[in-house]
Design a protein that fits this description.
The protein is an alpha+beta fold. It is built from eight helices and 13 strands.
C-alpha cells in the first residue's frame, strides 16, 4: 500500500498502553531510499519530546483512520536512548537505539532491512528492560571500532525537507517536489510527486525514484534521467485518489522502466549521494 508523506504526517502512533505521539517527519536512507525512522512528537506525557520510531515496531502495513499501531510500549519509549532529532543522527546513536529495542542492524545485510525485505519480520518480540539495557551496553562497546571507521553521517535525510526541492530533467527545469509516496510494507520511497505548475498549468506526475540520477542536498535539487517532454506526457497524478497497481503499471510503462513489484529486491538501486547535514 502506498501512502503520501502528507497522509503519514499527523498520524497517531499508538502503543498497547497508550498513544506515543504524532508523526512529524520521516528519516530515509539516501542510498536505498528506504524510510528508517518516523520522527514522532510525544504529547505532554513525555514533555513533548521528539523520538524516533522504527518501522520494525509497526505491527502491520494496513491500519484504520490515522492510527499507526506499534508493538513497543510507552514505557519503552520513555526510557529509550535520547536522540536530538534537530541534529544529524550518527551511526552510533542508531546502533544504541536498535540494540535497546533488540532490533538487528539494517546496514548489515544485502536486503533492504539487512536480514529481511520487510521491517515487521525483524521484530524479535518483547524483551525485558534489563535485557534491553544490557544489549545497549554491549552494542556501545562492540560498535566503538565501527564508529571510528565509518563517517558520522549514516545517510539519513528528512523527507519533509525534500519537499519543494527543484527538479531538473535532462534538458531543463520542470518544477519542484510536491510530495513523496511511501510503500508501507517495505517502507521504501517509490515515487516523488513532481509539481510542474511553474512549467505548465497545474500538472502533477508521480515519478519513480529509480529515475533519479542525482540529488544535490546542498543546492536542494533533484536531477532526473528523463527529458522534460517525457515528464510532460506522463500520466497525471491525482492526489485525491489512491494510486493502484494498474496506474503504477501505466507510469512505469510510460517511462520504460520495470515495476519494483517485479524485482526480487524491494529497494531501488542506490544513488550516489552528495553529502550534506540534515
Amino acid at each position: 500500500m502506498l501512502r503520501t508523506l502528507e497522509q503519514l504526517e499527523g498520524c497517531t502512533i499508538r502503543a498497547p498502553d497508550g498513544d506515543v505521539g504524532l508523526v512529524k517527519d520521516l528519516y530515509f536512507d539516501d542510498q536505498t531510499w528506504i524510510v528508517r525512522y518516523l520522527v514522532v512528537k510525544t504529547g505532554t506525557w513525555l514533555a513533548n519530546r521528539r523520538v524516533l520510531i522504527s518501522p520494525i515496531s509497526i505491527g502491520r502495513s494496513e491500519w484504520l483512520d490515522d492510527i499507526i499501531p506499534v508493538t513497543i510500549t510507552q514505557d519503552q519509549v520513555k526510557h529509550s536512548p535520547d536522540i536530538d532529532t534537530h541534529k544529524p543522527v550518527s551511526r552510533q546513536h542508531e546502533a544504541d537505539y536498535l540494540a535497546y529495542y533488540g532490533y538487528p542492524d539494517y546496514w548489515g545485510g544485502i536486503d533492504g532491512w539487512g536480514e529481511g525485505a520487510f521491517p515487521s519480520s525483524l521484530a524479535s518480540g518483547s524483551r525485558s528492560e534489563q535485557d534491553a539495557f544490557r544489549l545497549a551496553r554491549e552494542a556501545a562497546h562492540s560498535h566503538d571500532e565501527m564508529a571510528n571507521r565509518q563517517p558520522a553521517d549514516p545517510h539519513l535525510r528528512s523527507a519533509d525537507a525534500v519537499a519543494d526541492y527543484h527538479i531538473h530533467a535532462s534538458n531543463g527545469d520542470i518544477g519542484h517536489v510536491e510530495g513523496l509516496l511511501v510503500d508501507v510494507r517495505t517502507w521504501a520511497l517509490r515515487y516523488i510527486i513532481a509539481n510542474t505548475s511553474n512549467w505548465w498549468m497545474g500538472h502533477q506526475v508521480a515519478v519513480p525514484v529509480t529515475l533519479i540520477e542525482h540529488v544535490n542536498w546542498l543546492d536542494a535539487t533533484v536531477s532526473l534521467a528523463v527529458t522534460r517532454d517525457t515528464v510532460k506526457t506522463a500520466p497525471s497524478y491525482d492526489s485525491k485518489a489512491m494510486l493502484d497497481r494498474r496506474e503504477e503499471i501505466r507510469i512505469h510503462k510510460h517511462y520504460g522502466r520495470p515495476g519494483y513489484w517485479d524485482d526480487a529486491s524491494p529497494t531501488p538501486p542506490p544513488t550516489p549521494p552528495s553529502h550534506a547535514a540534515l
